[in-house]
Write the structure tokens for this entry.
Amino acid sequence: MKHTVFVAMLGALAVTGCASITAGTTQSVAVNTPSKDGAECKLSNEKGNWTIPKTPGSTTVTKAYGDLTVACEHGDGSKGSTSVTSSTAGAAFGNIIAGGIIGAAVDMGSGAAYVYPSSVSVVLAPPAGNVPTGGASQGSPLVMSPATAPRLSKEDAEAKLKDLSALKKQKLITEAEYRDRSREILGQM
């Protein structure tokens, strides 16, 4: 009887400690608009939506496997947006030892295994009617297009694909979700 109670308590402790080992499911993200302060920014990922009323500012977001999109607009009509890629938190690998495969799966599913950059800069472009003629000048803002957006390194892509494969093997995501997310990752290289 004592052995059964001990095993039950140990199991309960192991399951509840998983996400806390990798620092929880939320994190603070600061956003600035270097060319012009005072923009309102909307942040979103697969776990939710958040707003920063005025830049520079910060908010707490729920961590997720997918990208965090940041779209900002200033009162004068200037706009800009970017996406930042989550990376696997270093503590997630330690969780495999402490919490095993179940702990790692819980952290991947909850987002606790991932982390976004703590600071994001969004370049604002002037409204369509206010674009300077004669090409870009040295002081003009740049708009980041998908072609110029930061790309995933081979190592980051491999790590994300490996994490995704583990989720599929544990039946935490469907085959269709696996294919879609794999395409997203490969498209970011």
Residues 22-90+111-128+138-146 form a domain with the Immunoglobulin-like fold (CATH 2.60.40). The mean pLDDT is 74. The longest strand covers residues 26-32. The helical segments are 2-16, 18-21, 90-110, 154-169, 175-187.
